Amino acid sequence: MTSPFCTIVPPHLLEHLAASGNPAVAAAARRTLIADASARTARVLPRAAAAPADPPAGPAAPRRTIYDAGHRTDLPGTKVRGEGEEATADATVNRAYAGLGATFALFRDVFGRDSVDGAGLPLLATVHYDEKYGNAFWNGEQMVFGDGDDEIFLDFTLPVDVIGHELAHGFTQYTANLEYFSQSGALNESVSDVFGSLVKQHALGQTADQADWLIGEGLFHPDVEGTALRSMKAPGTAYDDDVLGKDPQPAHMDDYVRTSRDNGGVHINSGIPNHAFYLVATELGGHAWDRAGRIWYDVMTGGTLAPETRFAEFAAATVAAAKARYGDAAEFQAVAKAWAAVGVPTD
């Protein structure tokens, strides 16, 4: 099982910011890129096993621990809140705790899954990582959140879908284990966007029509011309800013971006499968997790995906999963129609 280092802000965006004429923006982006490079190559040390606990009498419950890095990069940092403990005076700590809980609740209450690994994996998060760190990541064992630079990015615990997105990388790690490169990597990113969006929608009780389908809404400083990092509804429209540049995501295979950057464009080309999921969910209506989300979950846990799965293979798997669960009904038709709309064949 691979444990990819997965960030919410893609390196190509940070590289763009590092070349900014604004010294504060450029310095923070360069610092973030250096921190990411160091964290990417760091060896994740095994933690001491927790003492065995008696099986819960009722439904599965999360086991959350929040740490404070104190603006350093040593992980995990100092423990500041454990499962069931009272809220602290630090809003960042409390948001991280709540976001881990919201993600756990989606997987348990909708899919009957006990944590991201299906076996009660403790959910660990570190906040206040480094200084002016403009990212959040999953390192194979835990979540890490920066406070942002207060020039482009605000606190990374603000959008609950960012928390859900990064934890969903753990879900992928323990299920399909999609390679973090090219189309399989874009699918890895897309699955995190899908479940990150579902975490937000589930927490807010939203239907597919009520959801904003944005990833990272509320993360940008108010001066930034943009609404979020990505839009599943309209890939390529999330931001268009003098400093940030323009959102490069395509929504159709005709505009697929071939690049050696960002592990073959994993954060860019994820717009295509993202949009397919959006089309399925809004075509079916109601709560997106009920049918569209169930189909994607079935594919991820069905054991049919290879680590190097490409878009067409994933699309075919969703069509097969829809038919297996719902027959030739509206769900099957919506899935086939959505992939056709984004230019991905399913046969």
Structure report:
The relative contact order is 0.12. The longest helix has 23 residues, at 182-204. It is globular and about 55 Å long. It has 10 helices and 10 strands. With 347 residues, it is an alpha+beta fold. The strands form 3 sheets. Strands 1-5-6-4-2-3 form a 6-stranded mixed β-sheet, with helices on one face. A two-stranded antiparallel sheet has the order 7-8. The chain has a two-stranded antiparallel ribbon with strand order 9-10.
Largest sheet: 6 strands, mixed
Tell me the strand order in the biggest sheet.
1-5-6-4-2-3
- Distance from N terminus to C terminus (CA atoms, Å) equals 29 Å
Radius of gyration: 19 Å
Descriptors for this entry?
two-stranded antiparallel ribbon; 347 residues; alpha+beta; 10 helices; single chain; 10 strands
In short:
By secondary structure, the protein is an alpha+beta fold.
List the helices and strands and how they pair.
Blueprint: E1 6-7, H1 11-18, H2 23-41, E2 64-68, E3 78-82, H3 91-111, E4 123-127, E5 136-138, E6 143-145, H4 160-173, H5 182-204, E7 214-215, E8 230-231, E9 240-241, E10 245-246, H6 262-265, H7 271-284, H8 292-301, H9 311-326, H10 330-341
Parallel strand pairs: 2-4, 4-6
Antiparallel strand pairs: 1-5, 2-3, 5-6, 7-8, 9-10
